Amino acid sequence: MTFQFSIGTWLAPFVDWLNANLHGLFYVIGRVVEAVLGAFQSLLLYPPAIVVILLVTITVALLTGLRVALLAFLCLGFCWLMNLWPQSMQTIALVFTAVVAAVAIAVPLGIMASRRPRLEAALRPILDIMQTVPPWVYLIPAVILFSLGQVPALLATVVYGVPPMLRLTTLAFRQVPKDLLELGQAIGAPPRIILTRIEFPAALPTLVVGLNQCILLSLAMVVLAGLVGAGGLGAEVTRGLTRMEMGLGLRAGLAIVAIALLFDRVSRSALQRPAGGSRI
Amino acid sequence: MTTGSMNAGEILLDCQSAWKIFGTRAPAAMDAVQRRNLGKREVLQEFDCVVGVSDASFQVGRGEIFCIMGLSGSGKSTLIRMLNRLIEPTSGQIKVKGRDIGAMSEPDLRELRAKHMAMVFQSVALLPNRTVLENAAFGLEVRGLPKAERNQTAKAALAKVGLADWMERYPGELSGGMQQRVGLARALTSDPEIILMDEPFSALDPLIRRQLQDEFRQLTKELGKSAIFITHDLDEAIRIGDRIAIMKDGVIIQTGTAEELILNPADDYVAEFVAGISKLHLIKAHSVMIPPAEFQREHPGVGLESLPLTSPDTDIDGLIELMVGHRSAGLAVVEAGQIAGVVTPTSLLLGVKGSQASETGGH
């Protein structure tokens, strides 16, 4: 006689129960997410590609500098030339939304964890699980609850993007020099001011690293999400794979690299500029 | 404990029997200390708690510079942090301008720190991504003052510490001494009555340190501020402080002027500390003179009127110069129009050594 323990026997009924009883809730969440994503995608796809490319380039130039702006121009131009413009915009919308959501979840939690060792201890195993369970696995309940499409892809991407951002936020805030915190208190600053004017600037370099991790992992996940019908460049990669079309897969792959570069460099330089750049 | 003479005038800061015990069972340990008079070691053994500061009491008057001197681990940094409640005292009362800061609410405490008590740190603690001017104005920024106003005040403070030409630079571009000047300017910007100095010059090289010590003392006196100055360097304490408290193992062993510490050390520890100090400028005529009668007994032929005159506040350096210049048997110390005593070569030599002139002499 063998003893077997299967998590599935516990989890599957739970997911089924969620699906049966809270279907309405998930339906609403799904629609809201879809609406946000849809609006974002239409915004990117409505004007002609060249207009979007120029607008982005000018914005980046104003925000950071000419070098990064040139890079943004080349990355977006590449996606357009590869004839993958709509797919690229879908992917950008998906990654952008997922990263914003992941940051919105991870940064406050990370700050709290940096102040409460117990919370951090409780979060750690959860983060470990989130990061090590193969992402395919949580696509399954996501698909069960939200059916195929962009919504499960987005949620799975957020789940994947939260852990690095959260860990590095905790680290960043723990690394803020104690004397600066003491200064904040001794000068009579309320906690809110200490957070925004002392801790955030001091934590920023590490936060930027976390953000980049978050972006790159989200991009990787978005590609996988092509499997559940999220569309975008992931779908092109999947199509290339299933049809054994090297050219298509490669084109989509390179476009993903271009988008990764775009996100990474723009976020990095935009965040580091106000911190005084190289003058520190 | 010997308490030195106080400057007459308003008491700005009154620290009464402040204790700090670190550890999870601090309240129980505090209770035991007060009931059973436990020592530091017993507290560690019985409660696993560390006594940081024990029973510290002192007062600081308006315009006074009060130095707390101790080696590392003596509890001086803990003590100074209790004065603005960065560290909560386990027991005791600290009054600033008559108000018990232990009873203050958070907003009141913030206002006290923002307006009445500034602090300067050993590590300077400048914000690296802000210019010198922005750093100096930070305290006012925190209080929500408009930019023009706070910059104007900060510029004035920076000018006082000699950094008028460096306002748009970043802290990383400044030398250590200049950075500490910014720290001082930041403290002055909020125009506090009390400045807490936590070993501000310890990390600087000796020449710059000297210069800053003199400037700090001059500036503080000029502006009429009170300061509590932490240091591990007795020379620094003597150079800067009006009065000095010597701390060891969390206890204030002795409080007094430099002269009082040298002439009447409370114990061997203080005596050992002051042994290496040059007394030339610290000991004054009133401490080394002998009574006129004793002088006349020793020198029957010399009339008191024939002696060169000097004042009770002349230091040993000055006395030696007079004595050598006149080649006389003694110097008459005149106080309020009367000859209060006579400095003889013997009493002067004893003074150089750091002892009182004679049993009957002194003050």
From TrEMBL, chain A:
How is it placed in the membrane, per its record? Multi-pass membrane protein
Residues spanning the membrane: 43-63, 68-86, 92-114, 135-162, 215-234, 246-263
Q: Which GO terms describe its cellular component?
A: ATP-binding cassette (ABC) transporter complex
Q: Which InterPro entries does the entry link to?
A: MetI-like, MetI-like_sf
What is one process in the GO biological process aspect for this record? glycine betaine transport
Q: Where is the ABC transmembrane type-1 domain?
A: 88-267
Q: Which PROSITE patterns match?
A: ABC_TM1
Q: What is this protein called?
A: Glycine betaine/proline transport system permease protein
Taxonomic classification:
Bacteria, Pseudomonadati, Pseudomonadota, Alphaproteobacteria, Rhodobacterales
Automatic annotation (TrEMBL), chain B:
Arranged from A to Z, the UniProt key words for this protein are: ATP-binding, Cell inner membrane, Cell membrane, Membrane, Nucleotide-binding, Transport
The organism named in the record is: Paracoccus versutus (Thiobacillus versutus)
Lineage of producing organism: Bacteria, Pseudomonadati, Pseudomonadota, Alphaproteobacteria, Rhodobacterales
Q: Where is the ABC transporter domain?
A: 33-274
UniProt cross-references to InterPro entries, sorted A to Z: AAA+_ATPase, ABC_osmolyte_uptake_ATP-bind, ABC_transporter-like_ATP-bd, ABC_transporter-like_CS, CBS_dom_sf, Gly-betaine_transp_ATP-bd, P-loop_NTPase
Q: What is its EC number?
A: 7.6.2.9
PROSITE patterns assigned to the protein according to its UniProt record, in alphabetical order = ABC_TRANSPORTER_1, ABC_TRANSPORTER_2
Q: What would be one Pfam family of this protein? A: ABC_tran
Where is this gene product found? Cell inner membrane
The primary site where this protein sits is membrane
Q: How does it sit in the bilayer?
A: Peripheral membrane protein
Which BP terms from GO are recorded?
Answer: amino acid transport; glycine betaine transport; response to osmotic stress
A GO term for molecular function = ABC-type quaternary ammonium compound transporting activity
Question: SMART domains from the entry?
Answer: AAA
The UniProt similarity line reads: Belongs to the ABC transporter superfamily.
Keyword Nucleus found: no
Q: Which reaction does it catalyse?
A: a quaternary ammonium(out) + ATP + H2O = a quaternary ammonium(in) + ADP + phosphate + H(+)
Its GO CC terms are: plasma membrane
**Name under which the protein is recorded:** Quaternary amine transport ATP-binding protein
The entry describes its oligomerization and partners as: The complex is probably composed of two ATP-binding proteins (TmoW), two transmembrane proteins (TmoV) and a solute-binding protein (TmoX).
